[in-house]
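Data availability (excerpt). The following record was deposited with the supplementary files.
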Amino acid sequence: MNAIVSIKNLHKAYDSGFVALRGVDLDIAEGEILALLGPNGAGKTTLISTVCGITVPTAGKIMVGGHDTVTDYRAARSLIGLVPQEINLEPFETVENTVSFSRGLFGKKKDPARVAEVLKMLSLDDKAKSKIKELSGGMKRRVLIAKALAHEPRVLFLDEPTAGVDVELRKDMWNVVADLKAHGVTIILTTHYIEEAEAIADRVGIISKGEILLVQNKDEMMSQMGRKELRVDLVEPVETIPDALMKYDLVLAPNGRAVTYTYDTRAERTGIRTVLNDLDAAGLRMADLQTQQSSLEEIFTTLVKEQSA
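Predicted structure:
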């Protein structure tokens, strides 16, 4: 993997004694979308702030595009775009000037063509002359992304990019993120929305209590760690599960017309064939079968609970 961001043994402790990050190791490949999941206080925002140079690490090393974020801060930071959670924009400034000013903060020369390109990429070109106060909440979030992209970074951090927006706007932002990836931008986003990670991420990282619990390809994670459920719809309802089937821990539907069998996808034998044979032997005739994969939310919850235990 060609890592554009490399984090090694990163620690962050505050004067109060609170430890926000504990030995974080993380490599982020160029051109990927990494979703970082974790409960409140897990260390997501602290990790982003430390990579971006807003917070100074207590120990460890961070490299961005081959530049050390401490000893070569300017070069490293010039490769990073950051979209914060809070919408903090000058309400009486135009969209065009807001984005252009952000470019200047990084010492870049004025480039109206580049600004126009970014605005078009984010479907803001028809709002270039509009004042910020005239925009909707979703459009303001697009302006935040445009500001972060104005200086042509290779890495974009999105801290809770869809917090507080409705479902329609959230899915619209997912499309924006996919378009940015298509333009070669590496994206790291923190989110509380599990479906967000499932929808757009290439890999998922789970962080809790300042530690990275797992980083894995999203599909592989769900395949290797997820459970599957086999639902068997019955021709005739039953009141109880026969004693001969109790060993399978089947769950009977409230209406008695279906039973559910849960199995581990990692096991050499799922036991499905045996279960189906025994159902038939017990006189439970099958009308239909369907399987369902456990969600990323269930995997996330299980990992966090295991760490807390």
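Summary of structural features: The chain has a mean pLDDT of 88.
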